[in-house]
Design goal:
Chain B: This is ABC-type dipeptide/oligopeptide/nickel transport system permease subunit. The structure holds four protein chains of four kinds. Chain A is an alpha+beta fold. Chain A has 16 helices and 24 strands. Classes of the chains: A alpha+beta, B mainly alpha, C alpha/beta, D mainly alpha.
Chain lengths: 529, 283, 317, 308
Amino acid sequence: MNRRGFLASVSVVTLAAGLGLAGGYSARASEPEAVFALGSAEIGAPHHDPIRATLLSTVATLIYDRLIEQDVDQSYHPHLAESWENSPDGMNWTFKLRQGVRFHDGEPFNAATIAWWIPKFKGSPNEYLVDAVDRVEVVDDYTVRFVMKRAEPNLIYNLASSFMGIPSPKAYDAAGDNFGVTEAVGTGPFMFESFAVGQETVLVANEDYSWGSDLSNNKGAPHVKRLTLREIPDASTAFLELKTGGVGLLLGVPDQFLPQLQAEEMLDFRSLPGFGITYLAFNTRAEPFGDAAVRQATALAVDQGAILKSVFNGIGLEAHQFLISTLVESKIDPKLEIHHDLAKANELLDKAGWQRGDDGIRVKDGKPLKIKLTAQSETAIKRTAEIVQAQLKAIGMVVEIDIFDSTTVVDQLKKGQHQLAVRQYGWNNADILDWFFSTTNIPYPNSSGWQDEKSQELRNVAMQQSKTQDERVANFRKYQENLIGNFLFVPIHEPVQNYAFNKTMLDVPAKLRGTQLVQATAVDIKVIG
Amino acid sequence: MIRHRALAMLKAVSTFKGGISGAFLLLLVIGALFAPWLSPYPYDQQDLGIMNQAPSLTHLFGTDEFGRDVLSRMITGARTSLSVSITAIGISVALGLVLGATCGYFGGTFDRIVMTVIDLTWSFPEILIALMLVAIIGPGLEGVVIAIAIAYLAQFTRLTRTQIMSLKSETYVEATISLGAGHAHVLFSHLLPNALAPVLVAAMLATGDAIILEATLGFFGLGAQPPTPSWGAMMSSGTAQLFIAPWVILLPGLAVALTVVFINLFGDAVIAALDVRAKFREA
Amino acid sequence: MLLDLEMLRISFGAFAPVDQVTLSVDRGEILGIVGESGSGKSLTATAIMGLLPRIGGQVAAGTIRFDGTNLVGLPERQMRRLRGGRIALITQNPMTSLDSMMRIGPQIDQAARLHLGLGRSAARAKSLELMADLRIPDPASVYDLFPHQLSGGMKQRIVIAMALAGDPELLIADEPTTALDVTVQAQIVQILVDLVRQRGLGLILITHDMGVVAQACDRVAVMYCGRVVELAEVDALFAQPRHPYTQALIRCIPRHDMARGTMSAIPGVVPSAAAQPPGCRFNPRCARVADRCRIEIPELRIGVSGNGVACHVAEAA
Amino acid sequence: MIGFTLRRLVLLLPVFFVVSLVVFFIIHLVPGDPIDNLMRAGSTPEQRLQIAAKYGLDRSLVEQYVTWMGRLLTGDLGTSIIQGRPVSALIARNLPYSLELGIAALLFSTLTGIAAGVIAASYQGTRVDDSITGFILLGSTVPSFWLGLLLILVFAVWLGWVPVSGARGWSSLILPTIAAGLGGIALVARVTRIAMIETSRQDFVTLLHAKGLPPFIIQLRHVLRHAMVPVVTILSLRIGWVLGGAVTIEYVFARPGLGSLLIRALNQRDYPLVQGCLLMLAMAVIIGALIGDIVQAAMDPRQREARA
């Protein structure tokens, strides 16, 4: 090949790439349009197929509807299921389905859809969500019954998960592996137009939509007629896009950016209660944390208030127990909650035989009180680690920080190579206690290595012997009270979810509904001008 | 030979460019060495009452997100950034000299295999090699040092090899061998000392690149473990306050840029003084 | 006179490696410049070509008159019109004198197209003709070859063709045969001599080979350490060399009547530009050195014959 | 020429084998495994085993390698564990963005670098040379993520000339191109400048001047052509960088690309995807070097003939 030919082919490639990209972005001027940026946790979703997905973005909640919606107060609301009923023994769930619902491809939504849908989870990574369902019976066109393998009061929670968006059976079976990539068909308020993985998804309004849930004011077609959801990994870049009007709304803003947001006149933000807790995890099998007194002293040395103020700029809540505050299970005996008490922490260590040396570092049996704090390289977590490091210095504990990527952190926890770790979880259900502290989950996710008969007995009751929701609540409270009394973790912070938007471009309802800013609020957002 | 090189250094410093850059680098090294005494505050002293404050008389470079003194952190950061890059390049040069000399001197299959691998890594983006290696070795400065050392190994191996190959063909080497000298003796006493000058100049310039690479790894949250500051780590955590405390990110960035510029200028001055053919960059 | 150099002084910063050079060449005449390397012969040629600034030097004093025009201080634009046109250069090493990445033909064409304003095909025709004149076999196919495909002697003929392409009046050949085999050397020198005779060119032939001088030149300038030490008709020079350096040079020519292994050489080395001895620069090596030679620099005195010598001893004789 | 290319291709086979070994095993040296990233609160240990079995992760590494290699020979790079899509499809989706930015940055740094190198060489040793060299040096000493943020601040936020981020059309390509290409300018300019200066010292250039050719013609038509040989070598060795080196740029400018794909896969220990990306890059690097050799040979008539 000669040089000229080489250069020519290079420029053709460049040109083609440029044109291809430009072509995909021809805007229709007259319609109200909006651009949202996905939150950092949602970035990199490879497709929008809720059944096969391990990572789903907000996009899925816009294309698909769920049977049941969950509100900000964790209450459940009908959507494609108009009503539901659980038999007293918990072994049968009956759902009445909404009528007149159609998929984007014109196919009707009915009982047959559900009978096709539930078995599709077999072998998928989301199988566990409907694991307790033995089979689905079609009672009539708009009534289905789930016959259970075991009682599962938590099924209703699972059905409100974003993985429970219902795709069109016809389109799903026809598209095969391409479903969620080149096409995605649901009954939701937005229809799929295009998707560039790692970059953006373009959606258009479903003008036939008339079955909005009662979480939305607008039950009909969404006000935004064309919605682009972009993926911007760097928070600074996303913020700059918002500032310059390239993006109208950020679905997720790190707390560190809020002061900068507040300084901008045309920007505003909304918050929703958080989805998880930032906490310190102990490894009870690694000294010195085998000793409950050391764990307790560590817990009392952490000043949640100071962390809230500096790391999280005062946004969110201090956490004093393990569950998010909107869960009723979180209301435990206040005396058991963990609060900052430096004096008592020092006293506990004195009693446990850890004597302060001249340099202020405690020593016992000739060994200094020196520990490793494992954390992952995400800003808030890293900063929490840094401030915890400074706070633990006050009780004579020397902390060395080890920052790893998230997978390596998990690997360390699994191998029990950690002593203390800054962790964060996102889960709005009390069964997270089982996940992190059940003996059956040693070594991971129960990386605390906690093995205790009493604790496990309370866990079994809560997980397997709760027939009703009320029973379940009471059982989980007792379970957490046992765990917190053993000082297996130090709750630190309950983040809120922040959504920032440009108020010269978008009108966002003052009060958000749902557990996250997803479909329920998206259909109510209006474009200004 | 040694005297010649010391003379060259003197000559380099005596030029304008060489003088200015030499003085800056000397100051920097002194600052890094005596960081604990020169810092106005302990680098890890948090004061949540004065977070993100703009530069002032009490805090010349302002404070960061924990109310720590940015100047103190930058001085200590210089220590981290310099020691990481110098150590890494030192290891890289040492390995590269041995590998390159062996390949260049003996040639053959061994040479071909090593050079294939070396060429491959040379064309691979350093940042990807470094990220991969840090993932394997683990975070912390050791990981970063080893990653940078390996990322730059190819350059020094290649350079040494080329030097040795061209020196080998010179007549005095044949003469030495004909006098009955062993390979090791020829290689280490005659060839390597002569090949050293360009490699050392290249090493100096690579130290600049290594500082940037360290900063970039710091941007991905790898490297210095908190509260130890490095310029890269400071820039990385500074991105979150880009608008309310821009000095936290701007000043370390400037420090990196200036240092690398001066290293390059000094390197150029040394090249000119040593009269090493500046060609080595192509090798 | 076609070219007249008077009291030429070339300087590089503080150094003046060439000084007080006076010589001339006429149409149809071959002037040889001889001397060891470092004597300033090539610098003098570079100065005539106006290429000194390229290597960081300049003419500090004196004049270079070409056909009546003083080239010193001539604007670069006008100098460029002469260069390759009326004055052409043939360089030392044919191996490196051609652009290895360009075909032979176009390299010859360049000067004709630039200075004679010929079109592509006219220039080609002229080049082919020149190549034939220079006894290059099969010019048409050589025209399309690359330099590496030719032998050294052939390449030197191409270099000569390149020089002739602009129809020059003055040709400067800087050691044109040094890099070539002995047999080829004689051929090339003969080609040059024939050119001068046939076309009436002026030729400055720079060489360190007295044999070449004897074969080709009409007049000779002997240079040592940047100065002309003797200027003479070629016959006079060989018959009666006056400067001790010239005498030594002539003694060094190998002759077949000499016994093997008795080739003589001038004792000592050429002093570097930075370490010139006071007085006559040849004095440390001179067999007939006098006290005056160590103090006073002798000047070149040219007599009515056009011959001259710069030597206290020779003048006194 | 064709023979030369073929010989080089045959030589690639053992290299390919070594590369495949390195690429396959290196990711297994990284602690952690992909399955943990698939597990969410509620999934059971049995599911863990199922997933491991599904991707063959329960077998020995050697067995896994053999399977992988077998599939590879049929052109199958496997399926991403985390993303559940064919690796080749994921690479194909990200490649255009990498190529777009990589080629733009390469053109930018090459053209600017050559121009700067030529000018600097032509004014060698003067103030022009010093300021060009200095300016380029300054540009190459700034970490690219930092430069990227700065460029966004100035040109997108304050001046509003170009979009902040994204990969939509040519206007969003400008800043990333500059941020990614600036470092390369210094390299290209340096090599060009030195090669130009070295070439200018050769006899044939003196002779060109002696022909009375205007200096800029000599520089551009003759000297530059010779100086391009080392520049082409340098560029051909940067192919890997073109495809995967812009990770930080991709991150800051929210662009998809091979680098980002690889890093994300690495963080999630998505073995097949990491292996696929690395293999892709390695092959691109090898082929890049090969193309460089061929182009270089094509440029130099001596080599062209010797290798014909």
